Amino acid sequence: MRLPRRTMLSAWLIPALLSMSATLYAAEGTVIIARDCDYVLLDSPEGQILIKMIKGERPKAGDKLAGKLERGFSELTNKRTSETMKVWVDQVDPSGSKALMHYSQYCDN
Known about the structure:
Blueprint: H1 2-25, E1 27-33, E2 39-44, E3 47-55, E4 64-67, E5 72-78, E6 84-93, H2 97-107
Antiparallel strand pairs: 1-2, 1-4, 2-3, 3-6, 4-5, 5-6
């Protein structure tokens, strides 16, 4: 009698845990500033995020980028174009002031 109960619990629990882990790593940000510069500034629920473009098509202001938005290398997908880009997530800033300041230092012409 215990075996069917465990099997049912496992059948429900494993997919739930997998979907939770995917949710933890997938996030979305909206491009605020994307000039002719290697860096792009995003707005997200976690705050402002500064990314450096490594490879791929440069997004435009208003584009939504989805993927892992944590410091380090990441692949993001532009929801408007469905293109994938490789980036370095330079900074995740809940207040937004540091990310904006660094963007202006890197991209001020």
